[in-house]
Amino acid sequence: MPRFSRECSYCHEPMGADEFKCKSCGNMVTTKTAKPDQPYMSEYEESTLDRYSMVLLVIMTIFFAPIAMTIGGILLFNDYASKRDAGKILVTASLIMIVIYMILFFAFR
User: Fold this and answer.
1) Cα 64 from chain centroid (whole Å)
2) Considering the entire predicted model, what is its pTM?
3) Crossing angle of helices 81-107/65-75, nearest 10°?
4) Residue range 51-96, pLDDT digits in tens
5) CB-based contacts of 63: which residues, under 8 Å, 6+ apart?
């Protein structure tokens, strides 16, 4: 019997027939390893922002820049890429709007 008769279902590294724990990733492997249809687990990824959401983000940023910056800062640490992108947009647009408000404030003072 060959030493490497199956592979880990998580990292796809070869492992022995008598091993139950993968040495490379540390996951427990079932006794029978079947090749999955998809090589990697697909995570649920939320769709990108639609037009309605973008309009709301712009309006919120224009009128409530500090609140938009706070919400954007929170979204920067989200697991989903689309939410991180929205957070980047909010923080950047909020900073721009605050600078514009400061310029207008000191110009008409």
Assistant:
1) 25
2) 0.51
3) 160
4) 777 788 778 888 888 888 888 898 889 888 878 888 888 899 899 9
5) none
**Three-class secondary structure assignment of the chain:** CCCEEEECCCCCCEEECCCCECCCCCCECCCCCCCCCCCCCCCCCCCCCCHHHHHHHHHHHHHCHHHHHHHHHHHCCCCCHHHHHHHHHHHHHHHHHHHHHHHHHHHCC
Which pLDDT tens digit goes with each residue over 6-27? 778 778 788 777 777 888 888 7
